[in-house]
Design goal:
alpha/beta, 5-stranded parallel β-sheet, 13% strand, globular
């Protein structure tokens, strides 16, 4: 029995950096603007990480350099989730990453934490111009595999990204921690 396990990056494998930063510096209106405009444009590849940091610094009243340093200080690998992924991979399952992010940022994090080789395929929203919860992004991921899987699971910490996935044959898993994930997946 071979399954496809698809994982989100932020909030599942690596800390939700954007929320940690914006919760510290921005009011609700600014956070909404960052999420709905700036981060969405970043995720779709319309703007770069540098563009995002300029806006973030302006709204936070800090320098761009300080924003970059503090942003990096919030990056934390969830080693227990990585262990679950390694266990699934060792069992012969197929593993994919489906993340809203800038490609350069995912590359940086993969280098920083040695994540290359952990995934059979990596889908980063900025490279495709689609971002979760756009249906096209999920379809692109699933359709890229020619193999038929017994089950397909997608794990994300954001419930908005888990809606209506059954139409793509995907079982949604709301991430609440690695131990909860182990129970839900029966690993």
């Amino acid at each position: 029995m071979r399954n496809l396990y698809i994982f989100d990056c932020f909030g599942v494998i690596i800390s939700e950096v954007s929320s940690l930063f914006t919760d510290k510096y921005l009011n609700d209106e600014q956070k909404k603007y960052m999420r709905s405009v700036v981060f969405r444009n970043l995720d779709k590849g319309v703007i770069t990480m540098d563009d995002m940091f300029v806006t973030l610094a302006e709204l936070s009243n800090v320098s761009v350099e300080q924003a970059k340093r503090e942003w990096a200080s919030y990056e934390c690998l969830f080693a227990d989730t990585v262990d679950v992924i390694k266990q699934l991979k060792a069992q012969g399952h197929c593993i994919a990453l489906l993340s809203n992010a800038a490609t350069s940022y995912i590359d940086y994090l993969f280098n920083k934490y040695g994540l290359f080789g952990l995934f059979d395929k990596v889908f980063v929203s900025a490279a495709y111009g689609y971002a979760k919860p756009d249906c096209e992004f999920y379809k692109l991921c699933v359709d890229s595999f020619t193999e038929q899987f017994n089950n397909i699971y997608f794990t994300d910490d954001n419930p908005n990204n888990l809606r209506d996935l059954e139409r793509f044959g995907i079982t949604p898993i709301l991430f609440k921690g690695a131990s909860d994930l182990v129970q839900k997946l029966g690993v």
